[in-house]
């Protein structure tokens, strides 16, 4: 398993770094169970990240991954922001609230966050991963000098080649089925929308660094399948959202239990970047809008305000309920039990494969 052997993993499974959902407790439970736990610090600042990494270190002595968002900071456009907020005003009114008078850039990109870089150099996480793009060369070099193994998400071949050229140790092939934000480097460019299988097979054929498959993978048989496409490991997000240690709120859990009826949708209206979410009141409202959505993370400020106003009146249907196309197969159990279940299913599906390939019959 190469780099995964260096990390002393006993399972080729990475729990996706889900900013706002994956807690240090969840990531530690995954790492302690022999897979790779991850936290996402894209929705917090350097101080918050430092606290998260310290708590995670306190809960596990095994390897873990810290994930950062590396996007281009947006150009603020106050007029577009006001137009977007005005479009939302009827929804705010339903909860006795008004939209914000202006929208803020609520999250900094790692690309320009020196304080976050210092946190990484101080804490030296065993794995550091990047979403939405790649940091500049000297940051990559400095992180490698700490001994960190580096991953980057790619949604197409060009992004994967850029990640490989930049010296990433593995590329996460994120298919269109995946829950949460598309890792697109430039969301203004057309999205090829490659499936997890197509993208994984393409990258395995075209690049030399190891490929991790992500998107729509929910059980041990899915994991075995993804490895048969040539992936060295898999990254699962949605599968972990329903775990006890997840920070998903009660409305998110409940929406996940109804995933078969709701389905999922790719929308840029929640945050300003395309992301896959369970169909809910927000995505239904957003699908009818014609005003341009402000760029990431400016739109997120508006959506989070509306969610807070709605939640204060016990309406949870306006949240960012990220989930992949496999959501209806989510399981609700403690994290350690889910990892053990995945391992057991993975081993059982291997035995089935071995049996069928040796021609054995019952
Ligand atoms: C709730 C949620 C939050 C996510 N947050 C992040 C994140 O902070 N950083 C990141 O690189 N990927 C994030 N992702 C995407 C995952 O890394 C991964 O691509 C995706 O979960 C795989 O698809 P699946 O959800 O169908 O398993 C998130 C996914 C979900 C479901």
How would you characterize this protein structure?
There is one protein chain. By secondary structure, the protein is α/β, with parallel strands linked by helices. It folds into two domains: 1-73 and 108-247 and 332-362, Aldolase class I (TIM Barrel, Alpha-Beta Barrel); 77-106 and 249-329, no CATH class. It is 42% helix and 13% strand. It has 15 helices and eleven strands. It has helices at residues 3-6, 24-32, 46-59, 78-94, 114-123, 137-145, 157-165, 196-206, 220-228, 238-241, 250-257, 259-262, 281-286, 298-312, 335-357, and strands at residues 13-15, 37-40, 64-69, 127-131, 149-154, 170-174, 180-181, 211-214, 233-236, 264-267, 275-278. The strands form two sheets. The protein has an eight-stranded parallel sheet. It has a three-stranded antiparallel sheet with strand order 7-11-10, with no helix packed on it. α9 (220-228) crosses α15 (335-357). The longest helix is centred in the C-terminal third of the chain and has 23 residues, at 335-357. It is globular. The model has no long low-confidence stretch (mean pLDDT 95). Flavin mononucleotide (FMN) is lined by residues 16-19, 21, 40, 42, 67, 131, 153, 174, 177-181, 214-217, 235-239, 241, 322-324, 326.
List the helices and strands and how they pair.
Layout: H1 3-6, E1 13-15, H2 24-32, E2 37-40, H3 46-59, E3 64-69, H4 78-94, H5 114-123, E4 127-131, H6 137-145, E5 149-154, H7 157-165, E6 170-174, E7 180-181, H8 196-206, E8 211-214, H9 220-228, E9 233-236, H10 238-241, H11 250-257, H12 259-262, E10 264-267, E11 275-278, H13 281-286, H14 298-312, H15 335-357
Parallel strand pairs: 1-9, 2-3, 3-4, 4-5, 5-6, 6-8, 8-9
Antiparallel strand pairs: 7-11, 10-11
Helix pairs in contact: 2-3, 3-5, 4-14, 9-15
The structure holds flavin mononucleotide (FMN).
């Amino acid at each position: 398993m190469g780099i995964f052997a260096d990390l002393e993993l006993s399972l080729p499974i990475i729990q996706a770094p889900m900013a706002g959902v994956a807690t240090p407790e969840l990531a530690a439970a995954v790492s302690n169970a022999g897979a790779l736990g991850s936290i996402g610090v894209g929705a917090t600042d350097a101080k918050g990240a430092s606290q998260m990494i310290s708590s995670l270190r306190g809960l596990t002595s095994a390897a873990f991954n810290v994930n950062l968002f590396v996007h281009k900071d947006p150009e603020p456009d106050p007029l577009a922001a006001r137009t977007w907020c005005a479009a939302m005003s009827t929804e705010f009114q339903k909860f006795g609230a008004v939209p914000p008078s202006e929208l803020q850039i609520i999250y900094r990109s790692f690309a320009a966050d020196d304080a976050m870089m210092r946190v990484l150099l101080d804490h030296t996480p065993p794995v550091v991963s990047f979403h939405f793009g790649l940091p500049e060369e000297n940051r990559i070099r400095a992180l490698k000098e700490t001994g960190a193994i580096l991953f980057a998400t790619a949604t197409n071949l060009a992004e994967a080649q850029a990640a490989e050229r930049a010296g990433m140790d593995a590329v996460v092939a994120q298919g269109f089925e995946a829950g949460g934000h598309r890792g697109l480097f430039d969301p203004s460019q057309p999205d090829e929308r490659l499936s997890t299988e197509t993208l994984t097979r393409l990258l395995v054929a075209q690049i030399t660094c190891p490929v991790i498959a992500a998107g729509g993978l929910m059980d041990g048989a899915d994991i075995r399948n993804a490895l048969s496409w040539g992936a060295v490991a898999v990254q699962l997000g949605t599968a972990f959202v329903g775990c006890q240690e997840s920070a998903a709120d009660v409305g998110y859990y409940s929406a996940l239990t109804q995933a078969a009826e709701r389905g999922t949708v790719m929308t840029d209206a929640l945050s300003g970047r395309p992301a896959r979410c369970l169909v809910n009141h927000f995505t239904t409202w957003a699908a009818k809008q014609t005003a341009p959505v402000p760029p990431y993370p400016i739109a997120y400020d508006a959506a989070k305000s509306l969610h807070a106003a709605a939640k204060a009146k016990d309406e949870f249907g306006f949240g960012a309920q990220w989930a992949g196309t496999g959501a209806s197969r989510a399981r609700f159990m403690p994290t350690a039990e889910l990892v053990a279940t995945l391992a057991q299913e993975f081993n059982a599906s291997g035995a089935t494969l071995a049996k069928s390939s040796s021609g054995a019959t019952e």
